């Protein structure tokens, strides 16, 4: 599934949605909400939000579900982001709230650690405009050399295991950067916490939504990780098995 997206020849429109000649809706950056969980990310948040602003010409809405005790929420507000305060309860609790908060038709998730390339937002939007329901950033396609080796191996194994259980090859189940049509995130009940990222790929795929993996670069993290690799890895493995079985016998 992981191939570069065919250039459609149509640049995403910057303004909000317009109909093309076939009557299909063509989304622009004004239709986009970029959402993230933020937990003590003051080393990265300024860069991440400035990148989103620059790439989308200030048109994308940004939503941060924040559990920080540092200056992260102040910096987010200075950049015009909407900040939803939440006690820190883990990645998935924050990101579930973040994906369900916006009213805009396209929701993009990212981490607030400067690892994901916001330069790829136009390509993600282009793939949605080409008809995909979910566009998933595949970090492993280009090697993800900046990812800690243990995490890289774990992420490859998660993708392999999920592929076997789903009967469909996927390459990166745990990526934090994806675009979703809002109806996808609203029509499914999300149950996982650390494993939410895998769940957000597996359930739509197993329900027949059009999902596309799009290769992305992955940069070294700014600031401290919020994930314990062993404990987090075990939780993700458990989520993958549980979610695949639930979807298979649904
Ligand atoms: N609000 C909130 N955000 C969280 C929580 N846990 C993690 N996050 C955020 O979720 C995102 C993902 O966490 P990361 O620490 O980047 O986890 P990771 O991507 O698996 O690991 P590395 O990027 O390699 O450190 C980051 O933006 C965190 O700030 C939480 O309990 N509450
Ligand atoms: Mg991260």
Written account of the structure:
- With 250 residues, this protein is α/β, with parallel strands linked by helices.
- The protein has one domain (20-248): Spore Coat Polysaccharide Biosynthesis Protein SpsA, Chain A.
- The protein is 37% helix and 16% strand.
- It has 8 helices and 9 strands.
- It is globular, with a radius of gyration of 17 Å.
- The two termini are 24 Å apart.
Kindly report the name of the CATH homologous superfamily: Spore Coat Polysaccharide Biosynthesis Protein SpsA, Chain A
Based on helices, strands and strand pairing, what is the structural class?
Answer: alpha/beta
- Tell me the fraction of residues in β-strands, as a range: 15-25%
CATH C-level class: Alpha Beta
CATH architecture: Alpha-Beta Complex
Query: How many DSSP E strands?
Result: 9
Helix content: 25-40%
Treating each run of at least 4 consecutive H or I residues as one helix, how many helices?
Answer: 8
Q: What's the Cα radius of gyration?
A: 17 Å
Ligand types:
guanosine-5'-triphosphate, magnesium ion
User: Tell me, what's the shape?
Assistant: globular
Stretches where pLDDT is under 50 for at least 5 consecutive residues are 1-14
- Tally of discrete structural domains: 1
Order of helices and strands: EEEHEHEHEHEHEHHEH
Sketch the major β-sheet: 7 strands, mixed
Mean pLDDT: 93
Q: Which sequence of strands runs across the widest sheet?
A: 5-4-3-6-8-7-9
Q: Cα distance, first to last residue?
A: 24 Å
CATH topology: Spore Coat Polysaccharide Biosynthesis Protein SpsA, Chain A
């Amino acid at each position: 599934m992981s191939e570069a997206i065919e250039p459609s020849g149509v640049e995403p429109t910057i303004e909000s949605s317009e109909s093309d000649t076939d009557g299909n809706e063509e989304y622009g950056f004004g239709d986009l909400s970029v959402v993230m969980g933020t937990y003590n990310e003051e080393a990265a948040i300024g860069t991440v939000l400035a990148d989103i602003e620059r790439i989308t010409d200030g048109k994308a809405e940004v939503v941060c579900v924040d559990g920080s005790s540092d200056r992260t929420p102040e910096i987010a507000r200075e950049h015009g982001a909407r900040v939803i305060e939440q006690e820190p309860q883990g990645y998935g609790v924050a990101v579930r709230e973040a994906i369900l908060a916006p009213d805009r038709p396209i929701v993009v998730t990212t981490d607030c650690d400067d690892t994901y390339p916001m330069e790829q937002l136009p390509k993600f939007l282009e793939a949605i405009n080409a008809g995909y329901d979910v566009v998933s950033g595949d970090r492993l396609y280009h090697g993800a050399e900046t990812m800690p080796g243990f995490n890289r191996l774990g992420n490859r194994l998660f993708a392999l295991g999920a592929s076997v259980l789903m009967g469909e090859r996927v390459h990166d189940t745990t990526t934090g950067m994806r675009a979703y049509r809002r109806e996808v995130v609203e029509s499914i009940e999300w149950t996982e916490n650390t494993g939410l990222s895998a769940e957000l790929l597996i359930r739509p795929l197993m329900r027949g939504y059009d999902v596309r993996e799009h290769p992305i670069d992955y940069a070294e993290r700014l600031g401290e990780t919020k994930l314990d690799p062993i404990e987090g890895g075990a939780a993700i493995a458990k989520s993958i098995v549980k979610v695949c079985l639930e979807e298979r016998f649904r």
